[in-house]
Amino acid sequence: MIDHLTPPTRLVRRLVAPALASVLGFAAVHLVAACVDHESTSPEFPGVIFGAQTNDDALRTLLETLPVEDPTQAAYLTSPMTGIAQPTTLPLTFKWRVGPSSSWNGRERREGRFTARDSLAGRAPLVAPAGPTLLPHAAPHARRASTADSRFPAWLHDLAPVSVAHAHGSPINGRAYFLVVTDANGEPVYQVFTLGFENVLGESTREELALVPQPLRASVLNAVFDNDAIIPGGGPWRGPAIDVTLTIAP
Amino acid sequence: MRDLHRDVNGRRALTVALAIGALAACGGDSTEPPPTTTTSGGGTTFDFGLPPGVPKPRVPADNPMTPEKVELGRHLFHDTRLSLNETQSCASCHLQGKAFTDGRATSVGSTGDATPRGSMSLANVGYLTTLTWANPVLVALEDQALVPMFGEDPVELGLSGNEQTLLDRLAADPRYATLFAAAYPDEAEPFSLASVVRAIASFERTILSFSSPYDRYAYGGDPDALDASAKRGRDLFFSEELECFHCHGGFNFSDSTAHDGTAIIETMFHNTGLYNVGGTGAYPEPNTGVFAITGLASDMGRFRAPTLRNVALTAPYMHDGSMATLDEVLDHYAAGGRNVASGPNAGDGRLNPNKSEFLHGFALTQTQRADVIAFLESLTDTDLTERKRLSDPWTTP
Fold first, then answer.
1. What is the ipTM of this complex?
2. Is the torsion defined by CA of A59, A61, A65, A70 positive or negative?
3. Which residue of A has its CA nearest to B350?
4. Which homologous superfamily is B213-377 in?
5. pLDDT, tens only, B221-241
6. B368 touches chain A (CB under 8 A)
7. I need a surface site. Which of B76, B162, B359, B380 has the fewest CB within 10 A?
8. How far is CA A3 from CA A40, A164, A203, in A?
């Protein structure tokens, strides 16, 4: 499956589709693949999972634009509860929404989550630069990486079925979210760029993330895009961070 | 690879200014020329009430937005005295409940003339780079308003040659005396044609639609605003398989969209293979698209991609209202064009030589089709259709 992660195939598809069409004859129809919601990767951002309808141009824009402080536009993680410690055998889903929500832990908010300590600015870069290795903490422990191209972390195996890369896919219109999970040292260990509101971590990812220095710290950066450009007044806005500790079940 | 986003069918705006017939009819000596500048800046302090992350419409420097002008424009837009026989207003063909369309395939003017094309939604009209179905040179709302007022072919409001009658009528109403004075406090003679069109255009720039369930989901960040079917439909709409987003992309679901601060204004027109009369590539007269203005063969059948916001309320569809339902529209795109089997317009639109490369056809399962429609329906904004500030002030204060 990992070979399908070879980067962007949009051009290829544009060539293949008409060829296929001519095989099928006039007004040939190409079936809409069921893969529109698949996730993919980009060589420029090797540690990042790209959700459906996202692309690396937009992520680059997001990361190059200075965030704006606005708690009403920030994305708040509503799951998991901050401070939670749980074994890797339990499911772990990150969920978020824009604006303070009732499910957000009010106590944490009162304690001032938008502090310099929580601000990711000045910490380790959110995205590891493109290179042969990524996730320095996680990669050595990657359990299934042996069968795969070593440039891709093991947790990508959880994203079945990964097929066509969308890293250069359709332009982003609307709000996009960049979930960043770092280890206790601020090193990014898990990153997802998506138009959705949640991300489910598979078991092998959880096991891998349990091996990095705990607690994990997660936050979401978001912005409003129009054809991959951030709309004037459209952020980016940085959400407050939550802490999660993953433990390896005895 | 980004340039693949550009339709090879798309055209940049024509820089040559072509005469707009109707404009000639309204250049009476007594009136100053209508404002035409479209440079930005006039809207910087006006509160459009936009949600965060939505850019402002462009506002001409010589027609800055003020609440007073907008309120005057609202009165004029809904006033049947704007037609010579006092039977029609702008709102007669642009009904708020139908997202400012009229539900007809083509419209009927105040004297019974049929318009060649259907009425268009005015939702977010302030963001459009060109106005009406296929006119690359009609770019200012101030200019466009003159067309229905003074156009003679077809007659819509029928005011040609009767500018003074209109101004006298308005000046005789004490309510307008107050409204015009408030809107144009610095003008010695506020009752002028220029004042009328500026106010109408200002009102039109407030016809904003950003409160649909889709907006709450995709822009507002509310994960619960869309159901699963509409979410899947969104993914299909923005997929390379369906290609819809190439022409109906961006926050306004039209590639002829710009906002305050947009650097490069693009105007795009596309031939979607609706017709191919006699196999010649022709569209039925007089609806030949941009060709009617440029006379260029390659412009035959090119129309502006309309916004799809509120599209569930704006049937029938296409420039001539020739499709009754969204299902029919999807059939057309899925087939990569429309084959008109018989009648005077017979011809296979799928083979139209000017057809956009994005109209290559696709197949949807029943569920996928329902998903795309659910997505299109999620663009319906009931705040737009019910907003008091846009409603008829003569019946509802």
1. 0.81
2. negative
3. A27
4. Cytochrome c-like domain (1.10.760.10)
5. 999 999 999 999 999 999 989
6. yes
7. B162
8. 12, 10, 21
